Amino acid sequence: MSLPEVDPAGTVTSVRGFRAGAAYAGMKTFGEGKLDIAILASDRPCTVAGVFTKARLHSASVDINRRKLAASGHRARAVVVNAAVANSSTGERGLADGETVTRWVGEKLGFAADEILICSTGVIGHFLPMEKMERGIAAIELSPGGGTAMARAIMTTDSRPKHGSVRFGPYVLGGCTKGSGMIHPDMATMLSFIATDAPVEQRFLQQCLSAAADRSFNLVSVDGDTSPSDTVLVFASGAAGGETIEAGSPVAADFAAALEALCVYLAKEIARDGEGATRLIEYSVQGAASEADARALVRALSTSYLLKSAVHGADPNWGRIVAVVGRTGVAYDEADVTVDLCGYRVFEHQQPTEAALADALQISEAMKADTVTIGVGLGTGPGAAVGWGCDLSEEYVGINADYHT
Fold this sequence. Notes:
- With 405 residues, the chain is an alpha+beta fold.
- It folds into two domains: 18-268, L-amino peptidase D-ALA esterase/amidase (4-Layer Sandwich); 280-401, ArgJ beta chain, C-terminal domain (Ubiquitin-like (UB roll)), CATH 3.10.20.340.
- The protein has helices spanning 60-72, 91-109, 130-139, 147-153, 202-214, 252-272, 291-302, 305-312, 319-327, 354-358, 360-366, 394-401, and strands at 18-23, 37-52, 75-82, 116-120, 162-168, 171-178, 191-196, 231-236, 280-288, 338-341, 344-348, 351-352, 371-377, 383-390.
- Strands 1, 2, 3, 4, 5, 6, 7 and 8 form an eight-stranded mixed sheet that branches. The protein has a six-stranded mixed sheet with strand order 12-11-10-13-9-14.
- A hairpin with a 2-residue loop joins strand 11 and strand 12.
- The protein starts with 17 loop residues before the first strand and ends with a helix.
């Protein structure tokens, strides 16, 4: 099934019944507009699905959200998000601080504290600056047009806000995400918030989110590092009315496709905005023995610093690709392996092609485009996967050398 088109101008509040707002609480020392705390709220209770980091070290926010969702039957009405401080590796104090923040937001909105979720992103090992958090929450003004401000507030090293929306039938899904470095998900390596006015049964909502995340956020990489704060949340309010969408419903497939389209779009935006990145790289693996093999190879390709450096230099050194294929342990016969670089077949039948030998300059020029495509065929089975990453520039080192200080 082809995925619907995403409107890049859409936001998480393009969805009826959702309001958002943001303020500057004094936590962020860099970034556009200096917004660093935001709230997304629904006019009515929502069913919620979530996917979280699989890292054994996770932030207080992840623990709080898992507890609240389990206790409420996966129902919530709002989420508060701060940038600059991750509230991770902060022990019992971190948990208590996070609970206090959700209570403040609940009092502001007139909701129960258990209806408020929380996410934090930024430096690990620092406590939330509670006075700043309280002042920031008090200063936020929520509105149906606040989605763009929210997308800006959750940024850390991101160079721009990332958001979009998609329609299916009478319904809308809108979302925003943040992520630029520390990106190599095992669900998820960033924060992402998605809202819909569709009425969706919770188990089906979770099933759709898990599947969409596997085809999007779990196949994007910037630098091979993951985060303890990683979270994706989907809020379904049902404000548009209609029959509840569940597995087997007439529009179930349409909802799943719309959610996947939005997740893929947001994941690609993360890769495109990777720290210091100048190019988006799309990796496509076909003909693997299994989908697991295809995914493993995509993830290996996307974390090869040699390959990422070659792309940055527009160097058509396809040997970097073949070398990754050779070390991943996926099943293949070398005689069946093919490699395509920016639309040029550069390797097949265990040797370089005529294009690889004669068209190196043309391939190099093609590699200077905004998007570089790398395709690997294994000729072994039906497994396939597509993922995204970015090149590696000198700026990446500078950003991360100075991130904490």
